Amino acid sequence: MSHPDPYGSTEPRGWDRSAPALPWPETDLEPGPWRRPAPGPDAYPDAEAYAGAVTDAYPVDQRHHDAPWPADGSPAAPRGRRDEPGPGDRGPWSDDRSDDDYPTAQIAPVRDEPAVRDDLAVREPAPEPPAGRRSKGRRRASAERPPTTAPPASRAGRNLPAAIGVGAALGALIVVPLFFFLPAFLAVLAAAVAIGSWEMARAVRRSGAHPPLVPLVAGGVIMVGLAWFAGPDALCLGLLVTVLGTMIWRLGDGPGNYQRDLTAATLIAVYVPFLAGFAALLAAAPDDGHLRVLVTLVAVVLSDTGGYAAGVAFGKRPMAPKISPKKSWEGFAGSVTAAAAGSALLLWLLFDVAPWWGALFGMAISCAAVLGDLGESMIKRDLGVKDMSNLLPGHGGLMDRLDSILFAVPTAYLLLAVFVPVVG
Question: What is the pTM of this model?
Fold first, then answer.
């Protein structure tokens, strides 16, 4: 059985060819302890063809397997390959050789670290860093200097002390002018509308829409003023004027994406200044306007606080996981309960309204506040933003605080118009 030489040699390869001259090891050297004697005449079926072919066995070493071809172009002994063996075959490349054939195989290898086999290469593990040195940006802990640990995150997902401080400051900014100088409350409300319109216009630009900011801010301030001085009919008229002004202003930028920009501008005009105008309507009520605003804000605060406390303590079942994963049905129950109890007491003390009507008022305000929060969360999810801005530490943007109030003030205006009719 012969095989053609794949490297161009016409000499047949197999058992019927004469043995080529081997480049290693030197035959005139004395056999060392790592060599073994040549196989006997019974080792191969055709002993005459291989008479004197193999005099020394190859040592167990990686470099012998990787040895080059001889300089004269003749093929060297095959590496790891054996042809069809005969009976009793124990040639130099036989797979059934015992450990007695290799004296060094009985010696246990000495290794410092286990090597990692990677196909044809053997990669040693990375050396350890020198003793006494530490990685960049880390310090050594000791008894005087304990290891640095990151503060645990709040279950509410925000900085609670900062949120409480900013919330108290916002409450004072509203309540103080509300009781001591009512026109200043109108200025605070107009500023809040302008900032909220700016945050909304800035956020919707992530979707590719570019609503004109100038007519939105100017129209929002006008709407609040009209509601304060002329009532609900003027508020609706102000919304119409704001939308028309936005349409005319946007014509200057050409027809590209006109419908998308106008839709975004209309959404902002309805969501921020129009709903905020009902707060101006509440405050403009004669004699008790400041009290109407107060009971509405207290109901919203009680709803948020009760929902937060109940959600942290008992929240397990999510209310709307795709919109707001942190809201739970247990938190919603806490919101409704706290708002109903507080409003029942407050309306009975301030307006002499029966407690059950006050509880109904608190429940309605709580539901409206939760819907407002979910509505803004849906808008933020659609736009791919976490907060409308980073204006308020611990809260995000101003719209993140106004979302509950904007839905609560129209509800409070309608219910108080029934429970506490306006006198004068």
Answer: 0.62
